[in-house]
Amino acid sequence: FPLFLQVTCNCFTISNGEMQDVGVGLYPSMSLLNHSCDPNCVIVFEGYQLLLRSVREIQIGEELTISYIESLMPTSERQKQLMRQYCFECDCSLCRNQEKDAEKLAGEEHTWKEVKDAVNEARYPKSKEEWEQVLARCQSLLRSNMGYIPDTNIYQLKMLDCAMDACINLEFWEEALYYGSRTLGPYRLYYPGFHPLRAVQLMRVGKLQYSQDMFPQALETLKQAYNIMKVTHGTDHSLMQALMEIKEQCEAIMRTQ
């Protein structure tokens, strides 16, 4: 039981290139890092290799921090998760200010609570039929919520992400781009500066724009992804290499037009 608790409190969630969870691992030296909801470092993976990347200027003597949890939650929810899994209460600047909580829960409460329940109930589909069911549920809720919940509501944003994922898996590229484009404003709001999740989302939308022959828009989106990813992932990361390849293809097409 003590070993189980040590793993629970010290493990890292291993993610793939698109920041999707694929497993957990123990990295003893990285377990020494403390938490902040507004950290100065992020962790990205290259396979099973853990990379610690700074995302802003760090002063001499300043502590290196990472976020132990997904930050796209209201302060009260973040505090509950940190207390439940790590047994401490966060006192970072983001938790003291709570300045974005109102935007995260904007809209009519009874409506976004229905979306929240749907998001929490969602399980990763394993077949085309299951993806079709997920998409139908997302489409129904997004249609009925039109005008009642802004896209900045975090549960609406997660629903848009879910709809985008379903469309990609079902190869509905145009509809995937529609949902993905709606997420970019909220992502910019909640992941300002350099954040790997925003970089990956920009890359996904840029690839969809490229597939729709929207080359000027795709190039602009991919450039934004590149400017963030060179900080969060570094130029040697395999995802960065893939981004540079599609960006160069887009630039080549633009030159010939």
Provide structural commentary.
The protein is mainly alpha-helical. The model has no long low-confidence stretch (mean pLDDT 91). It is built from eleven helices and six strands. The radius of gyration is 19 Å and the shape is globular. The chain has helices at residues 2-10, 75-86, 93-97, 101-104, 109-121, 128-144, 154-169, 173-190, 196-211, 215-232, 238-256; strands at 11-15, 21-26, 34-35, 41-46, 49-54, 65-66. The strands form three sheets. The protein has a two-stranded antiparallel sheet. Strands 3-6 form a two-stranded parallel sheet. The chain is 57% helix and 11% strand. Helix 6 (128-144) packs antiparallel against helix 7, helix 7 packs antiparallel against helix 8 and helix 9 packs antiparallel against helix 10. The longest helix is centred in the C-terminal third of the chain and has 19 residues, at 238-256. The protein folds into three domains: 1-98, Beta-clip-like, CATH 2.170.270; 106-185, Serine Threonine Protein Phosphatase 5, Tetratricopeptide repeat (Alpha Horseshoe), CATH 1.25.40; 191-256, Serine Threonine Protein Phosphatase 5, Tetratricopeptide repeat (Alpha Horseshoe). Its EC number is 2.1.1.354. One of its GO terms (biological process) is methylation. Keywords: Methyltransferase, S-adenosyl-L-methionine, Transferase. Pfam families: SET. It catalyses: L-lysyl(4)-[histone H3] + 3 S-adenosyl-L-methionine = N(6),N(6),N(6)-trimethyl-L-lysyl(4)-[histone H3] + 3 S-adenosyl-L-homocysteine + 3 H(+).
